[in-house]
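hey so i finaly got around to running the thing on DNA-binding response regulator from Micromonospora wenchangensis. pasting the sequence first so u can double check i didnt mess up the copy paste, my clipboard has been acting weird all day
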Amino acid sequence: MARLLLVEDDLTIRAPLVRALRDRGHAVAAASTAMEGLRHTLDDRPDLVVLDLGLPDLDGGELLRMLRAVSAVPVIVATARDDEREIVRLLDAGADDYLVKPFTAAQLDARVRAVLRRGGAERPDGEPVLVVGGLRIDPRARQVTLDGTPVELTPREFDLLHHLAGRPGTVVTKRELLTEVWQIPYGGADKTVDVHLSWLRRKLGENAQQPRYLHTVRGVGVRLAAPGT
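ok and heres what it spat out for the 3d tokens, dont ask me to read them lol
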């Protein structure tokens, strides 16, 4: 199952495509504007973005440029524009494939699977399960258990915990977290990290005053370690 983001403003196209892709086993989120699509990509980190060009707030080509500044997520441009120069320009700008409307859901699904196969070496399917004390983080299933009990996390909370679990016992700076987890290399607010750490602590049954796994190093960052270490 792939996690897809469909950026398409036309509801008569968006709704049936979402249903059809879900019927083919994908988890599908949808956005109707460029800025909503950018936010979804940064917050939810989908496996692939299907991008229309005729969006109401920004041209999809501009969104592609913005995505490429902060993310390596595969992008399939799906649009009615069939000008060869436009196709070449967008592929050169970082699109992974280009599909001209009208197309069937089966055609789109085949393109999705082909693009994901090409990028298979970069996908997390082969990553090992991480274990830190009673925490077990499975990147393939994107599931976390604590002492055998499932922990329900948002996509961002999972990515944050996964990044820290890959560096157990190491103090990770907020700047690194913003760059690697939020994919914001050009700056950002430490408060964003603090808020998500607070939510994560709550779900792990701890707090900053009585930490078990997440230990704040004031002025530096945060360290994930098994209790007692």
